[in-house]
Structure prediction request, 249 residues.
Amino acid sequence: MRKKLVAGNWKMHFTPPAARKFAEEMKTKLCTPDVDAVLCVPYVSLQSVMDALAGSLVKVGAQNMHYMDEGAYTGEISGEMLASMGVPYVIIGHSERRERFGETDTTVNLKTLKALQHKITPIVCVGESQRQRREKRTAAVLRKQITFALDEVRPSEMAKIVIAYEPIWAIGTGEAATLEQAEEACEMIREHIMDNMGEKAAQTVRILYGGSVTPENASALFAMPNIDGGLVGGASVKPSFEQVVRYGK
Ligand code: PGA
Prediction:
C-alpha cells in the first residue's frame, strides 16, 4: 500500500511572516497519520515555515533547486543548501519552470539525480499541453518526459521519488482533468515505469495528480487506484487546504 501524499505548491505567495502565520494556523489541521502533507514554499520562507512546523508531521519542500552543489550561478539555490537546512522535498520540473524559465528534460534529470544524492525527495512534474492532448500525443509526451527525468535513476530509488502528473491545461484554470483522464495518465506513467524499471519500482513510486485540485474534487481524484495524492496550487494557500489533505485518507 502506498501512503497518500498531498503537497501544496504555494508558488510565489506569502511573505515570510505571512508564511509562518499560515503554517502555524494549519499545522495541526494538516496533521494526519494517513497522509503525508507537504508545504512547498518560496526559498525565503523555508526557515520560517520549518520553525512553525517543528514537531509536526507536516513537512516542508522547496519549489526548485539547481543541479550543481555550488558555483557561479547567480540567484540559484543548490540541493546541497536545501539538504543542509533539512528540507526533505523539492518540486522539480514544474511546467511553469519548463515554460517560463528554460527548464528542460535534461535539467529535470540532473536535478532529480542531485536531489536523490542529497536524500531530498524530488516531486518530478510531467504533463502535456492542451495542443498535445488535442493531437493525441499525451502518452508519447509523458513517456518521453518520464524517460528523460528518470535516466540513471535506479529502480530501488523509486520509493524515494514522487511523480506529479500535471496536465498544463488544468493548472490554475479551474478546469481539472476528469477522473478518467487523470487516472488514465497516472496508470500509463506507472505502466511505463513497470516496463522500464520493474514491478517493484512501479508499485512503490507515488504518482500524484495536479491541476485545479479543490476540496470539491480531491476526494474522488485521490480515490482512483493509480492516484496517490495531489500537487495543489491555488487551493493550498487557503484554509480549506485542510479538506484537500484530509481527503487523501
Ligand atoms: P493549481 O496548480 O492547483 O492552482 O491548478 C497546481 C500546480 O501548479 O502545481
Remarks:
- Strands lie at 4-9, 35-40, 59-62, 89-92, 121-126, 162-165, 206-210, 229-232.
- The mean pLDDT is 97.
- The longest helix spans residues 179-197.
